[in-house]
Specification:
Elements: H1 11-43, H2 47-54, H3 59-71, H4 74-79, H5 85-90, H6 99-109, H7 113-123, E1 139-141, E2 148-150, H8 155-158, E3 163-168, E4 171-176
Antiparallel strand pairs: 1-2, 3-4
């Protein structure tokens, strides 16, 4: 992919172009999150994996986009338009209380995502740490390939080599190749 770059001469032009690109990326993440919310609502929670596969986006990334889009309504996105998607992502864990206060702080103090995450980690030192009281997930081995799989998770996500999506009677289902 050898595309020609626009003729940019000054530092300011590079910065302006970079800001435009970053905003386009942020808008894309919000759109994917909103679409994933719609897919879940209209076609059920289990449709996310099929949708992710259909649009060539990792399921985990799409689910993350959906979670963040659900947590932050349009009015907050507009209010903090200056902040990047990554700022919202940093304050999205459910253990963080009053995420809007963190967004306000990041906006007022013009915090980088790195500095915002550092402040959050200092305030919530257990975020990201596993809860040792949680039950382990139910797993089993795929008979075809021997890989471990989570129960109630789409086979397609792990065993892509021997599963395929087929359309039957207007609905998509998974079956062995």
């Amino acid at each position: 992919m050898n595309e020609e770059r626009p003729a940019i001469k000054s530092w300011e032009e590079y910065v302006s172009s970079g800001q435009i690109a970053r905003e386009a990326k942020d808008d894309s993440n919000w759109l994917l999150g909103d679409l994933a919310l719609g897919i879940s609502k209209d076609y059920g929670e289990d449709s996310i994996g099929k949708y992710a596969y259909a649009i060539s986006v990792p399921k985990k990334a799409l689910m993350n986009n959906r979670t963040i889009a659900k947590r932050f309504p349009q009015d907050l996105r507009i209010k903090y338009k200056k902040l990047s998607w990554s700022h919202f992502e940093a304050v999205s864990p459910l253990k963080i209380q009053r995420p809007e206060a963190w967004l306000e702080k990041a906006d007022d103090e013009e915090l980088s995502v790195e500095n915002l995450r550092k402040m959050i980690n200092e305030s919530y030192p257990t975020i990201g740490q596993p809860d040792l009281n949680d039950d382990p997930p139910d797993v089993y081995r795929c008979e075809e390939c021997g890989l471990w799989r989570l129960k109630d998770v789409s086979s397609l996500e792990i065993c892509k080599g021997h599963y395929k999506i087929v359309k039957k009677s207007g609905e998509y289902t998974e079956e062995y190749k």
